[in-house]
Q: What sequence folds into this?
């Protein structure tokens, strides 16, 4: 009878890359939403990729930052109005759509506004290396400053709709009016800055009525902020959810005739415990640091840039050290697997921004960097990877 191999001779297998739940680019992702709505408004060049949606003359997208499908379903008491709409999601199928990878705000907003996957629009992470300078570029804060339309050269769907005679408008915080991220992801038509959520809902309804064909976007950020700081099951987070639920109902009750309101999000979120088992500190781990020139991305979706010539060694090491908890891929493997869109959609200028190694968390763990990223490393709620809690977002629908 064969003897079992001794324990010291066994090596845990890293997660198989084909087990990662890749976003539904082309059929049911955030990048497919505005092109589908614009196609229904007869905007040239737009394709209705989310086939479950029915065209409407006026369309409004209300994006709630950080409200994933699983979090909404888990809190019916705090969000009674949105919970009543769960069956309307994705054209009445009662199913969510996917955010895209990584499931993070800068990437998702660019996908929404341009109608393109990350491999095409070029914002493939929270921080990524700029191949022209060798520096990490924070694509949410746009630091260091980089020419916006060089970094993301495509027109937004709002711009294309505006050129086609559709009334296009964004209603959001005045803070966002002139930011580079807004310029490359959400500009086109008119921007209307309002501080309170109630003012935004009222003005969004008014803007929908301005045109016979309208495309209006509005946004609420505070659910995400509460989740990062206090966690997605904290009293503060629940309070923010209760507030935004009332805002959705306020907007829904004011829709002009022939309007479709879609309520969605840029990502979900999970809470990660504060202990060494769940928070792996890159800055304190010599094995993970070996051969690494730059660490990009965020705790649940890392772009790792190797010292030239050390790419294979870094990939091997990361798989051995964290491969049971993270999907760890080379750049080519991540592209081939469709993490950033179809492989043929990943442009050369974007390919070089993606890490030599890409690591996406499957388990409830973070790869923090306590010294170089102290603020991010202290957050309770986190997101970025391809797990259902982060990746799935609602597409609730109200029609008038």
A:
């Amino acid at each position: 009878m064969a003897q079992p191999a001794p324990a010291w001779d066994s090596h845990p297998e890293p997660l198989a890359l084909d087990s990662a739940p890749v976003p539904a680019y082309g059929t049911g992702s955030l990048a497919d939403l505005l092109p589908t709505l614009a196609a229904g408004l007869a905007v040239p060049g737009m394709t209705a990729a989310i086939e479950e949606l029915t065209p409407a003359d006026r369309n409004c997208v209300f994006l709630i930052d950080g409200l994933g499908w699983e979090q909404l379903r888990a809190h019916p008491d705090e969000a009674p109005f949105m919970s009543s709409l769960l069956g309307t999601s994705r054209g009445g199928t009662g199913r969510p759509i996917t955010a895209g990878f990584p499931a993070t705000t800068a990437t998702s907003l660019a996908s929404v506004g341009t109608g393109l996957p990350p491999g095409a629009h070029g914002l493939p992470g929270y921080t990524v290396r700029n191949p022209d300078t060798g520096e990490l570029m924070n694509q949410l804060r746009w630091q260091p400053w980089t020419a916006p339309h060089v970094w993301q050269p495509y027109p937004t769907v709002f711009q294309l709709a505006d050129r086609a005679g559709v009334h296009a408008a964004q209603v959001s915080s005045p803070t966002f009016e002139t930011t580079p991220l807004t310029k490359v992801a959400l500009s086109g038509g008119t921007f209307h800055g309002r501080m309170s959520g109630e003012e935004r809902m009222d003005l969004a309804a008014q803007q929908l009525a301005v045109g016979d064909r309208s495309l209006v976007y509005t946004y609420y950020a505070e659910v995400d902020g509460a989740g990062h700081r206090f966690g997605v099951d904290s009293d503060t987070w629940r309070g923010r959810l209760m507030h935004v639920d009332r805002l959705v109902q306020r907007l829904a009750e004011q829709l002009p005739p022939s309007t479709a309101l879609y309520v969605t999000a840029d990502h979900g979120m999970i809470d990660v415990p504060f202990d060494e088992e769940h928070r792996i500190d890159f800055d304190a781990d010599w094995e993970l640091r070996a051969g690494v020139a730059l660490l990009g991305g965020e705790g649940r979706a890392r772009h790792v840039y190797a010292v030239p010539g050390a790419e294979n060694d870094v990939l091997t090491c990361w798989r051995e050290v964290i491969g049971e908890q993270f999907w760890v891929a080379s750049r080519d493997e991540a592209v081939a697997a469709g993490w950033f869109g179809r492989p043929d959609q990943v442009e050369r200028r974007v390919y070089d921004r993606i890490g030599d190694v890409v690591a996406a968390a499957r388990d409830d763990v973070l790869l923090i960097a306590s010294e170089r990223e102290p603020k991010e490393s202290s957050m309770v709620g986190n997101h970025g990877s391809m797990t259902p809690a982060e990746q799935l977002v609602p597409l609730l629908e109200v029609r008038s």
